[in-house]
Amino acid sequence: MSTGTILWIVAAIVVVVIVVGIIIAAARKAAEKKRRRQRAEADRMRTEAASAEPVARDHEVHAAERRARADKAQAEADAQAAEADLRAAESEQLATEADRLRGEAAGRSQAADESRSDRARRLERADEIDPDVDDSSTNRRH
């Protein structure tokens, strides 16, 4: 091999090494630039997340207040329902008592009617056996 050929081979190897070095350096620079962008993006996202925390706490407080109001309203509704149930039970008792009293009244009314009827029969019978009562008279005692 001649010296010229060897120089060309060495020069080619040096050029290849330089090109590979440039490619590696460019790749590292691009990777470093990408990492810097990612760090900056991560910092931005952390800042946004940190600034959103008070808003989230505010929403949490409002949600807790609304839950408390809802629980209070439910308790009031339950109390009113219990009171309504109690009043319905009292109404049912009063209706039952009214039915019982109507039954008693009907029984006493029937007893009074029977008593009047019995009285009328006794008066008629008394009139029938009384010699002083005129049977043809329309004015009988009743």
From TrEMBL:
Protein name: FtsZ-interacting cell division protein ZipA
GO biological process, alphabetically ordered: cell division
Region Disordered, annotated ranges: 34-142
Residues that span the membrane, as ranges: 6-27
Keywords: Cell cycle, Cell division, Membrane, Transmembrane, Transmembrane helix
Bias (Basic and acidic residues) ranges: 55-75, 97-128
Species, as recorded: Spelaeicoccus albus
